[in-house]
Amino acid sequence: MGKIYADIALVTSVTTTHATCPENTDGSATILVGGGTVPYAYTWSSGDSVVTATGLAAGTYTVSVTDAAGCSITATATIIVLDIIAPTLACPGNIFLCGADLINYTLPVISDNCNLNASVPTLVSGQASGTAFDDGVTTQVFSAADAAGNTATCSFTITIFPIPDILVDSVQNDLGSSSSGRIYVTAVGGVGPYSFVWEKDGVFFSNEEDLTGLQTGNYRLVITDANGCGGALAPVFIDNIVGTANPLAQISIRVWPNPAQTGIWVKMNDLTVFSAEMLNAQGRLVQTITPADLADFLSVEYLPNGVYYLKVVDAKGKPWVMTWVKGN
Question: What is the pLDDT of residue 72?
Fold first, then answer.
């Protein structure tokens, strides 16, 4: 009796190595074959003709296996992107500015093992570059994600220090070259202690806050607070008054009642007002006042209790300041 041969069917299984990035072609697929009659011939849709197809991007590939007896079988291999490396996000360093308004900062820099396709970081909290920041500390938090959904975050702070201001309490001209001129000022806003640098006619004169014993000349003050923020006073001219018994008699300004509850009156003598404004104890503007308003009763009911400054600038640009108190 003759021998009977039983054909064993071809069987396959596929193993894969996935691509590391959407743009990478570092995936591979291996076809494992059993049964049939060796040797086997391989035809991949990628063009490979060996057991393992290499240089594969993400996608689906087919492979046809044919044995020596002409029997064939087809299998598929799916290559996906398997990116488990998160991007890195580098924020700029903390920013410290004096009295800035519109702040422009450098956006964080994203880097990744895969192509980011011009991806930009996302602002999670804080304010956009080019917008107005208030005094104080604002924390900027940014995030970024790659195509695989891996994420990274970073943060930095923007600190805005208030700019100190200089209020002129009083100015007295010299009388008959007797060195009786004086300038009294108050530094407000910013953070004390303050340093003072006075110049007379462009030359250093004093580091005192208030000046006395002055003769005629232009006096200019620059102050610097503990944060390194500065403010400057417009030049104050001390004149030499000849034949006047009281060098303060020419100009006067008074606020009453003081303290005030509902409103104040402002009385001025021989003063042409160019502009006026109300400042709080930190030197921040709380109200802009027109020269015409100064002739009427000024309502202050809306202001919380505290110390305030009425700052009046005359037609020559010289500031005059009166201190008053809102309260019972």
Answer: 96
Taking each continuous run of H as one helix and of E as one strand, the counts in the chain are: 0, 30
Domains delineated in the chain: 11-79 (2.60.40), 88-161 (2.60.40.10), 165-241 (2.60.40.10), 252-326 (2.60.40.3580)
Residue 96, C-beta contacts closer than 8 angstroms, at least 6 positions apart: 159, 161, 227
Helices (H), the chain: none
- Per the structure block, which two tokens stand in for 34? 């059993």
Residues 6+ apart with CB under 8 A from 35: 8, 9, 10, 11
| DSSP line for 290-301 | -GGGGGSPEE-T
pLDDT tens digits, one per residue of 23-44: 999 999 999 999 999 999 999 9
Mean pLDDT of 218-226: 95
Q: Does 261 score more than 50 pLDDT? A: yes
What pTM was computed for the model? 0.64
Measured distance CA(18)–CA(114) in Å, rounded: 14
Instruction: Please give the single-letter amino acid code of residue 285.
Output: L
Question: First-to-last CA distance in the chain?
Answer: 128
* Cα 302 to Cα 317: distance, rounded to the nearest angstrom: 29
Residue type, 189: G
Across the beta sheet with 306-314, the strand order is: 285-289, 273-280, 306-314, 319-326
Which amino acid does the sequence have at 162? P
What Å distances lie between residue 18 and 63, 90, 167, CA to CA? 17, 29, 71
